[in-house]
Amino acid sequence: MIVIATLVAAAGRTDRLRTALEAMIEPSLAEPGCLGYQLYADPNRPEQMALIEEWTDEEALRLHFGTDHFKQVSEVLGEVLAVPLQLRRLTERIA
Q1: What is the pTM for the complete model shown?
Q2: N or C: fewer beta carbons within 10 Å in the chain?
Q3: Residue 90: exposed, middle, or buried by beta-carbon count in 10 A (0-12, 13-18, 19+)?
Q4: CA distance linking residue 9 with residue 56, whole number of Å
């Protein structure tokens, strides 16, 4: 399963958002069921970022949402996002 989280930092909060999301990479990759966890920024609009995650299944993702590092970043997101994050789950691979 692929998860795409799209995030937009509020004015003056881009660095804080980037730091919080970068801190998620290593502990997330260490979780059982995490196959990939990458952060990208839009080169033309650095306040816009996307996390591209790959999980073995829905249960692994559910457990991820309960980790301490996820809870910590969730608190930061409430302070730094311009708009609520968008989360897409892609479960069907084509070709």
Answers
A1: 0.91
A2: C
A3: exposed
A4: 29
